[in-house]
Specification:
4-stranded mixed beta sheet, alpha/beta, Glyas_Bleomycin-R_OHBP_Dase, 2,3-Dihydroxybiphenyl 1,2-Dioxygenase, domain 1
């Protein structure tokens, strides 16, 4: 159902550096590129992510309560994505680790939270055995 998520940017080159690094770790690259818009992912694959300068020409602003969640393959990738985000101009919103209690199968939501250079909030998450770090 979900095709892709778009975040606004005021500096597409800076956003491209940030999201190129995130996409590389996720095993994808750019799937569309225009002067004011870049999308990462695979055509026909999982939902993608795009960064764009707003069509109306106004400044991009951060949506309150809006967050993009990136599904990681394991807890190690949750950690790598958090590190990559911080190394590429992002800011920390929550270190990698388990969130909440384990479910009946002993699985826990494992996530990290960060913002891109424009202030858009993202997280990297996976489900992991409750003892996983």
């Amino acid at each position: 159902m979900l095709g892709y998520v778009t975040v606004g940017t005021n500096d597409l080159e800076r956003a491209a550096t940030f999201y190129d690094a995130i996409a590389k770790e996720m095993g994808v690259g750019r799937m569309m590129e225009f002067p004011t818009f870049i999308a990462w992912g695979e055509m026909g694959g999982a939902p993608g992510l795009a960064a764009t300068k707003p069509f109306d020409g106004e400044a991009a602003t951060v949506g309150n309560g809006m967050m993009v969640a990136l599904e990681a393959k394991d807890t190690a990738q949750v950690h790598r994505l958090h590190e990559i985000a911080l190394e590429n101009g992002g800011s920390d919103e929550g270190a990698p680790g388990p969130r909440g209690e384990a479910d009946d199968n002993g699985m826990v939501f494992y996530a990290s939270y960060f913002r891109d250079p424009d202030g858009n909030k993202l997280n990297a998450f996976t489900m992991a055995k409750a003892s996983a770090e």
